[in-house]
């Protein structure tokens, strides 16, 4: 599309597509989803290389895996879902549920996952019979647009409605806000910077956005230390740390700290001195804006160290910052989507949990928390104290949060953070979140309502306990 976007025309096309989409059968929809999934999967390597070439973020090999998850794993998760017509019928309750599409969706996609998030959002939109409008990050216009084009061509070949997938070129802030607030738009799926997500929520259109993911990883003393460190490295170094569910800090009990540090160094961790931490802070975190510096997102550890003026051994995979506190005075205690991680030693489990809570509330409320432990009681205690939608156990957090690989969570690239993260849900967002559910309620008399003498409600001498007892008598 041209740089000047006719927002009304875009939404008008999406609305027309929605009218046709609503008439399609489940079989037809599933055929469209399969063909789009196949097209995206078959182009997984091409799109991954295109993403790294354009954005200069991450590793193309890891972006291939992201594209696989966004197609094959998403497809496996949603392929058997009923999303058309009657989806459930309970003869006992008399409730029949009918799935209806919600209508045109506006999807904002990030620079960190510029092809995989597009693939994911398109698949769940098509599965739920909703047309989708993709607004790529300005630094990923080409790769995100190419991804959408591949999906659209496959959808059309499967006889999907014209304009069921649209993608924007470079748009102005005003155009983006105009589209968000358009009266005929049904939902915004926002993944991106905090200002865009906040704009989505203030647009007047229903929105599902993603909050910050300042994920703490607690290593409890019963953990298998070599295994725990291995799993954290699998996650935090994946695509150079660009997944929002990746670990941002390690909190280890003092009794196993020495072994943890030794294991981390053996795998390519470099522990920064206090002076080196200051150098890395300057280039990794923008204190004025209170966010990570975009220039280091998705860059290799060695490159970040070079920019900061820190000498590290060849082969360094992770920069580790031992810290004594959490908050603005400790910038590396915040979310940094790069191979940089904070490190805390705690006297005992309770102290470790308190540090995790501080980290959680400093910038990752509602998102994800991680624990490595073989003590089920400690795991449960940790989970109940953390304000996180996902508590992943003995799992690489990046992959565990996304779901489908190391657990049975719905596979998703949009991770709900609940009300504390300004979301309506803590679920991993999937196709069923993009449906309006109608409910037929057939008559099923409430036996207690029918036989109870409602005149007793007007007797002030009868309190709740008396009436509740009579209401449920012999029931």
Structure description:
- With 475 residues, this protein is of the alpha/beta class.
- The chain is built from 17 helices and 17 strands.
- The strands form 4 sheets. A 7-stranded parallel sheet has the order 10-13-14-9-8-15-16, with helices on both faces.
- The longest helix is centred in the first third of the chain and has 19 residues, at 60-78.
- The protein has helices at 7-21, 26-42, 44-55, 60-78, 116-127, 141-157, 173-180, 194-201, 225-236, 254-266, 274-284, 301-308, 349-363, 376-385, 397-402, 447-451, 464-471, and strands at residues 85-90, 95-101, 105-108, 132-135, 165-167, 187-190, 207-209, 215-219, 247-253, 269-271, 285-286, 291-292, 318-322, 340-346, 366-372, 388-393, 435-441.
- The mean pLDDT is 96.
- Helix content is 41%, strand content 17%.
- Helix 2 (26-42) crosses helix 6, helix 4 runs parallel beside helix 5 (116-127) and helix 11 crosses helix 12 (301-308).
- It has 2 domains: 7-210 and 429-436, 3-Layer(aba) Sandwich (Aldehyde Dehydrogenase, Chain A, domain 1), CATH 3.40.605; 215-407, 3-Layer(aba) Sandwich (Aldehyde Dehydrogenase, Chain A, domain 2), CATH 3.40.309.
What is the fold's blueprint, element by element?
Blueprint: H1 7-21, H2 26-42, H3 44-55, H4 60-78, E1 85-90, E2 95-101, E3 105-108, H5 116-127, E4 132-135, H6 141-157, E5 165-167, H7 173-180, E6 187-190, H8 194-201, E7 207-209, E8 215-219, H9 225-236, E9 247-253, H10 254-266, E10 269-271, H11 274-284, E11 285-286, E12 291-292, H12 301-308, E13 318-322, E14 340-346, H13 349-363, E15 366-372, H14 376-385, E16 388-393, H15 397-402, E17 435-441, H16 447-451, H17 464-471
Parallel strand pairs: 3-4, 3-6, 4-5, 6-7, 8-9, 8-15, 9-14, 10-13, 13-14, 15-16
Antiparallel strand pairs: 1-2, 2-17, 11-12
């Amino acid at each position: 599309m041209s740089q000047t976007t006719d927002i009304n025309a875009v939404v008008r096309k999406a609305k027309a597509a929605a009218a046709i989409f609503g008439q399609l059968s489940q079989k037809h929809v599933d055929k469209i989803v399969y063909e789009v999934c196949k097209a995206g999967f078959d182009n997984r390597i091409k799109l991954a290389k295109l993403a790294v070439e354009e954005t200069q973020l991450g590793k193309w090999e890891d972006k291939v895996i992201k594209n696989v998850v966004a197609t094959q794993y998403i497809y496996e998760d949603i392929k058997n879902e009923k999303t058309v017509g009657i989806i459930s019928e309970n003869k006992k309750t008399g409730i029949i549920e009918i799935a209806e599409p919600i209508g045109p969706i506006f999807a904002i996609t990030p620079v960190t996952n510029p092809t995989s998030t597009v693939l994911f959002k398109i698949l769940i939109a098509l599965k739920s019979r909703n047309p989708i409008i993709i607004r790529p990050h300005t630094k990923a216009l080409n790769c995100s647009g190419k991804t959408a084009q591949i999906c659209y061509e496959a959808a059309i070949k499967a006889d999907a409605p014209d304009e069921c997938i649209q993608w924007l070129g470079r748009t102005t802030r005003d155009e983006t806000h105009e589209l968000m607030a358009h009266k005929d738009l049904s939902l915004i799926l926002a993944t991106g910077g905090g200002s865009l997500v906040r704009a989505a929520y203030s647009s007047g259109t229903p929105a599902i956005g993603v909050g910050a993911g300042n994920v703490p990883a607690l290593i409890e003393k019963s953990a298998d230390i070599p295994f725990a460190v291995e799993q954290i490295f699998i996650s935090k170094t994946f695509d150079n740390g660009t997944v929002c569910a990746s670990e941002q800090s390690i909190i280890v009990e003092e009794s196993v700290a020495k072994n943890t540090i030794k294991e981390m160094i053996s795998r390519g961790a470099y522990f920064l001195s206090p002076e080196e931490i200051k150098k890395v802070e300057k280039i990794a975190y923008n204190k004025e804006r209170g966010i990570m510096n975009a220039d280091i997102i998705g860059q290799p550890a060695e490159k970040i160290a070079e920019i900061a003026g820190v000498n590290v051994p060849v082969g360094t995979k992770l920069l580790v910052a031992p810290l004594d506190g959490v908050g603005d005075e400790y910038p590396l205690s915040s979310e940094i989507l790069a191979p940089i991680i904070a490190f805390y030693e705690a006297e005992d489990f309770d102290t470790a949990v308190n540090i995790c809570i501080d980290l959680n509330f400093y910038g990752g409320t509602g998102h994800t928390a991680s624990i490595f432990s073989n003590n089920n009681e400690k795991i449960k205690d940790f989970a109940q104290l953390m304000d996180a939608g996902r508590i992943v156990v003995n799992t690489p957090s990046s992959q565990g949060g996304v779901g489908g690989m190391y657990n049975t969570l719905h596979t998703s690239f949009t991770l709900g953070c609940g009300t504390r993260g300004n979301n309506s849900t803590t679920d991993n967002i999937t196709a069923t979140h993009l449906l309006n559910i109608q409910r037929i309620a057939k008559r099923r008399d409430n036996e207690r309502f029918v036989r109870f003498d409602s005149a007793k409600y007007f007797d002030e001498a009868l309190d709740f306990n008396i009436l509740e007892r009579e209401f449920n008598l012999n029931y």
